Amino acid sequence: MKKKFLLKKIISILKKKGLSKKHSKISANYLIEAELFDARSHGITRLKMYCDRIKKGLINTKPKIKVKNINSSVSYIDADNCIGFVAAEIGIDKAIQNAKKTGIGLVAVKKSGHYGLSRFYAERAVKKKLIVFCFTNAPPALAPFGSRKPLFGTNPICFGSPTGKVPFIFDSSTTKINRGILRRADKLGLKIPSGLALNKKGLPTTIAREALLGTQLPIAGFKGSGLAWMIDILSGVLTGSSHSGKTKDPFDDFSGPQNIGHLFITINPNIFSGNNFFKEIRKNIKRVKKLPKAKGFSSILYPGERKNKIYKKNMNKDISIPRKILKEMEVLDANK
Amino acid sequence: MKKKFLLKKIISILKKKGLSKKHSKISANYLIEAELFDARSHGITRLKMYCDRIKKGLINTKPKIKVKNINSSVSYIDADNCIGFVAAEIGIDKAIQNAKKTGIGLVAVKKSGHYGLSRFYAERAVKKKLIVFCFTNAPPALAPFGSRKPLFGTNPICFGSPTGKVPFIFDSSTTKINRGILRRADKLGLKIPSGLALNKKGLPTTIAREALLGTQLPIAGFKGSGLAWMIDILSGVLTGSSHSGKTKDPFDDFSGPQNIGHLFITINPNIFSGNNFFKEIRKNIKRVKKLPKAKGFSSILYPGERKNKIYKKNMNKDISIPRKILKEMEVLDANK
User: Fold this and answer.
1) Looking at beta carbons, which residues of chain A come within 8 Å of B118?
2) How many Cβ contacts (< 8 angstroms) between chains A and B?
3) pLDDT reading at A336 higher than 80
4) What confidence tier does B158 reach under pLDDT thresholds 50, 70, 90?
5) Phi and psi dihedrals of A171, rounded to 5?
6) Which ipTM score applies to this complex?
7) What distance in Å separates residue A77's CA from the closest CA in chain B?
8) Do A293 and B76 touch (CB under 8 A)?
């Protein structure tokens, strides 16, 4: 489907459900961005979920978003349960502003919802020549080390840095497989590789549905579990949002708003050694790329490069949407 | 050996080599702390290395440490190649001060050396009721994903948070095995478990020496490699220090000072939701601990708890030192 047409379609559907024109535009844009990054688990497949939550009043279509500037570096945002994309965009823009003023920005967002990919907001800061951390929590997916019940989300770590060229964007969940990929596999009846998740009984599974009802395995055992816990503290406890398993699953739990929290930290890389930073990071990347390659590798890519290539390639193509999801869109478009 | 006696001995040795009384005391204290945490790879086994570097003039015994306050949140420290423990302690104390003033502290340290465990400095901030990140770089140990030559250090991620009780301290290298453990295993002729490192030819090895000359494997493949790269940018490039493989190995490379960088980020957890933070983090920990346990687990510990127990147990015992290291100390003590 043509991108332009698809964008219009999504905006029209979101508006029909009651979202404002502005919020519909912002949200539709990020859903398309996810498709362009081949992060299809965070793309159009989620449109129905957002619509369901809007219809049920769990995403606030007329939010009173409050931005409190605690000082010139630190701000606190109450997103009033607006759609996550909008809350996060306001949050990262505030963090960018703050870092431009003082060298460091710290912004907490509470009462938000699922915001798509952390990468979106990291790129926004990196394009303004800032270093950035984005943290967000997510509904239970991962069992803390020593437990057999999921409680932490897939809690991604996202870090970005300008390089002078393609942004360095490290964006990785603390689970071996992303939950969105599980969701999409379940919807489309695809199997998942083994060794990534356990079923409810604690046994390995390759069936997406069983994994969703069971536990996703953390990267690196107790280290991944510790990182997920760290992110639960930063994005949940610190921001005054849901945490320790209380973040509602946007697909399954309609008992209230998600109350997700985000934390953005931005740093002006010029603050310590001036423009030397840009000289040195170019050297850094050049040195790594020149290393002798491992078997099966013809080049070494830094985090963000592969995704950037995918994005550019997809920019020149139409977006292909599985029939099942197309049908979902038709139904969404037909009903108020 | 009695702790008090050991402390005196180490101070006396360091002073004999030319370190000031103050710097000797600070350094000896952290070497003992490492032993108490059972992080023996960062304990007395390193004393000879520090002495060698002092003797060769690579650790500056009369440094002119400059602290530049860029603003009330951000400071930049030129440690003038002093011993790493001292540089890091000055750095974290500045970061603590800044966060107490504005809610956020950002401190970069350049021209430093190996500072022991990141945990030391994280605990210092947590004891002042702050959330903290400590980043430091290290000499080449890990091959970037796609390469077969080590370039990044074991680059630890360290995060701390107050809990009202035992500090939450996540301190983990981005490699599957710590380099210090390899060093100590090599010194004492111990084998290492398989699957953690490759030899120079890229083949798995359990011989510490081969692993030291080869490559340590990252946690979680490309994710661990990406995290190590992130830390190289934060502690190396951003601080204006060595990076991308240019950090000198303190044991093997006497061609100049290490020029290691550290980055400390401190956050006052009260800044967003006041004392609610402490109420919520207690809830957070309680909820996780109450989860049903996995097979073989009788309790769930948060990062830092196990080490805290070890520390307390060791506090009531003498420190046992392998004969080989005792001999090393005797030689160090005998010679100027």
Assistant:
1) none
2) 215
3) no
4) very high
5) -140, 105
6) 0.96
7) 9
8) no
How do residues A270-284 score in pLDDT, each as one tens digit?
Answer: 999 999 999 999 999
Kindly report the pTM of this predicted structure. 0.97
User: How far lies A88's CA from each of A138, A167, A267, in Å?
Assistant: 14, 19, 17
* CB of A176 closer than 8 Å to CB of A192: no
d(CA A107, CA A75): 5
Give the mean pLDDT of A200-227: 93
CB contact at 8 A, A164 and A282: yes
Name the 3-class secondary structure at B91.
helix
| Cross-chain Cβ contact B146/A70 below 8 Å | no
Give every CB contact of residue B268 below 8 A, 6+ residues apart in sequence.
Answer: B99, B100, B103, B104, B129, B130, B131
CB contact under 8 A, B240 and A276: yes
Structural domains for chain B: 1-55+304-336 (1.10.1530.10), 60-175+218-302 (3.30.1370.60)
* One-letter amino acid of B323: R
**DSSP notation for B192-250:** --TTSEE-TTS-B--BHHHHHHSEEPBTTTHHHHHHHHHHIIIIIITTT---TT-SPPT
Paired tokens of B72: 């009330």
Under 8 Å between Cβ of A153 and A140: yes
